[in-house]
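Need Helix-turn-helix domain-containing protein's 3D structure for a figure. Predict it.
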Amino acid sequence: MSDLTLDPATINTSEGPVVIVAAGSQDGERASSGHRHARGQLMGSLRGLLSVGVEDGQWIVPAIHAVWLPPHHFHSVRSHGPFSGWSAYVAEPACAGLPSRPCTIRTSGLLREAVLRAATWALEPLGAQRERIAHVILDEIRDAPPAPFGLPLPRDPRLQRVARALIDDPADERDLEQWAQWAAMSSRTLTRRFVAETGFGFAAWRQRARLMRALEMLAAGRPVTTVAMDLGYASASAFITLFTREFGATPAAYRRALPAH
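Structure prediction for Helix-turn-helix domain-containing protein:
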């Protein structure tokens, strides 16, 4: 299916193909309010960051990773900027061996190519060859290790406003006091509530937001020095040091390990 929007009846029944994939892009932000459906869903972005909300929290997922949502899990989705991506909907019986909790996974080249191939299929019974591709998608979801690339969003609307502003412009140089004033709260309250609602201190969360955007920029082929400067780091070496500490590999090594486009 090439349209990003599927009939709700299609994703609320196990009848039909075991895997149904929708893919596409749009120039503006993509957003869906909280909902649930009977099929499991694996969603990935080819361009842009996704903000995914579930019942017990929210997190940010960069391009080249995907979010798995088991059947009937309440969730909402928003892209940050233009969106290009896909969603694979898995019939509930086939979800029995897949993760039972929402999680993020690294999108392998095999998984990405399989879902993009499946996105071209009409909504009709699968032949033997397509059944094999569908089961490759299931195997990849089952075997992919969870990826610790999520970034939790705070629940407080004032803190969410700060968080979303930092996601949209990670290089914004306002300090803690200035952000607190902008959010109409004290810096002490902002600091305390950020830790309570995200598990990260404000500075650590801000740094991780920059690194999430760095993953996307590296995947798009941007030079390491350009990424560092565009995200507001004092130097390329400072960026490389922080990136390596967080992800266990240099930015250049991380990019070499990405699936080929």
